[in-house]
Amino acid sequence: MKKLYYITILICSMSIFVGYIDCKADSHLESELQKVTLLLDWIENIDHVPLYVAKQQTFRKHGLDVELLWGGDPDAPLKLVAAGKYPFAVSYQHSVTIARTSKEELPVKSIGLLVEHPLNTITFLKKSGIKTPADFKGKKIGYTVAPLDVLLFNTIAANAGLSEDDYDLINVGTNIIAPLVQNQIHAVIGPFRNYEINILKLKGIDADFFPLEKHGIPDYYELVIITNDTYLENHPDNAKKLMLAIQEAIAYTKKSPDMALQMFFKANPDKNKELEELAFRDTVNLFASTQMQSKEKWDAFTKFALKNKLISKDVKAEDLFVNLLDEE
Question: Which of 275, 257, 201 is nearest to 45 (CA)?
Answer without folding.
Answer: 275
